[in-house]
Amino acid sequence: MSKTNSKVVVSVLLLLAVSLSCKLLNRTTSRRKGPAIDFTTPGKSLDVKVQLDKKQTATAKVPHTGGSVSLTSADGSKFTLDVPAKALDAETTITLTAVKSIDGAPLAEGAMAAVQLEPSGLFLKEMATLTIVPGKEIPIKEQIIFGYESDGKDYHLALVDAKSKEIKVKLMQFSGAGVGSSSDSAWAANLMIQASDASTRLWQKLGAAAQAERAAQFGIDPENESAFRDIVESTLDQFEDQVVLKEMVAAELDCKFAQKAAQDLIRLERTRQLSDVYPGQPFMTKDFNGKLEKLSKIAKECPAPYRIVGGLQDWQTDTAVCDIMKPFTLTGSCCTMQLSGGLSGTYTYTGIFNANGTGTYTISLPDGIGKPGTMTGGGAGEITGDKVYTGSGVEKYTLTPIEPCK
Fold first, then answer.
1. Domain that holds residue 365
2. What pLDDT, in 10s, does the model give residues 142-197?
3. Less crowded by CB within 10 Å, the N or C end of the chain?
């Protein structure tokens, strides 16, 4: 879907829902004949920026027979790595270093306890256990336990001992792990990461199956046709379960994901129609209309907060805007600008030296999570002094997503 005004998107989505059909037909979702998600194919990763506290380290030589390394960080957080026997081929020097901060991770502001383990990339032949006791208690329902590779690559939710009340992270390869505080938006972002990764893998599987079927249609492998239908059916079912449904939950937790969830819901339905997996049915995704209308309502009521930076020559602004879809104000070095709101509209401005003017603007928001957008504007203005000076120009701005205003 192109970059459009979310209000326009809502209308388009509703029209699509009506145009498909008013009659809903249930489908059977228990069929899983094709392969599961291909977890051998690289997917999209989230890289974070990790800052270490190199004054807070602990080092120990761990023998082939096993051992442990412990660290207490400056904030009182305790980390204990237990390495079982036969996990290492030979005696290995292992270092734990406290993490001072992590930028770019979908975590709420607040308590966070994390550690980096070295040597980075070390592979263990048996599962080691990293026990984390945060210096400031984080209730279990608010915990997001995470890991990352190298110096911040491939941020992901960590494997933990599900039966332990203590935070016990299971590791077979180093580098970092920790626990942070959650919020609705943090959980939503984690769900979107999972959905994005699954989506990449599933479309890869679907594309491979479609190309094999194309070869079969031209007699290269005529035995492939029945296998193709099974693969497509299973892959699209998994796309619904692992992508669309997760994105819908994320949208309920954080409304900014509603548009992406609606786009993937429509993609699922259109692909099912194209592949004719369920022939003779006008509707192939259960309660498509209901789901789409729900997402549309969430998107319509969602504020769009951004930090807007830029301008033209002497006019420069750096302003946090709580909702660009409603009228908003930009303040800056020389002037104050009043904008009508929405992804396109009009503005007026006033400033020093009796400056005033009018113009129009257009905002372009990208597809994707947390990426910046752009805004351009232009019009005519004048300054009244000993005489009237007039001029025109094009302003350029960058819009960076920020947390919703309180």
1. 306-401
2. 899 999 998 888 888 899 999 999 999 999 999 899 999 887 878 888 888 888 88
3. C
